[in-house]
Design brief:
The structure holds two protein chains of two kinds. By secondary structure, chain A is mainly beta. Helix content of chain A is about 0%, strand content about 50%. Chain A is built from no helices and eleven strands. Chain A is globular, with a radius of gyration of 13 Å. Classes of the chains: A mainly beta, B mainly beta.
Chain lengths: ~110, ~120
Amino acid sequence: DIQMTQSPSSLSASVGDRVTITCRASQSITNYLSWYQQKPGKAPKLLVYAASSLQDGVPSRFSGSGSGTDFSLTISNLQPEDFATYYCQSTFSTPRLTFGQGTRVEIK
Amino acid sequence: QLQLHESGPGLVKPSETLSLTCTVSAGSISSNSHYWVWIRQPPGKGLEWIGSIYYSGSTYYSPSLKGRVTMSVDTSKNQFSLKVTSVTATDTAIYSCARLSSTGRYFGVFDIWGQGTLVTVSS
């Protein structure tokens, strides 16, 4: 089974900061990786699919990169509405799925 | 717009069976481009994939639930269901159903979620 290790588990940042979250797969998943944003009491929202493709309507300050085993989600110019929890998800073995542990982005 | 809605008891006793149903509205569960998925999230914790089912009845389960999970589909009712046996307090979570794309550029991506339902395991 593929394991996804996401880091950090939480971070504190200020509005306007650049933030990077990383996700490492236990084996190569080529570009089969998605990123989601979740706010309290809400369903996760798709940000990035296929490692680097930005979902329609997602602000361009979000970007995804990586392939193989190492991936990252970068938020440039952090905005107040970006404070949330972010999850990576391997789609390599669909319909068997694996999520990272999540990264909580908090206001400094 | 297709919608998903979870239903079932919000309280289950330890050692008993948790049973939930997800009803698909404004669309068909008999899609050859999607899987139907259960995910759970313990309070304050991360997302955990429970299992996926195709409209034909093919099922895929998380090994972490160690054979306690059964999923089924009823295409006549446009519903799919989840059963988790021998529950303990660690099974307390928000349980959500979701639709998963199985083709194209959105392969493996969740595009529609239910609102989620809290299931508490307690005597």
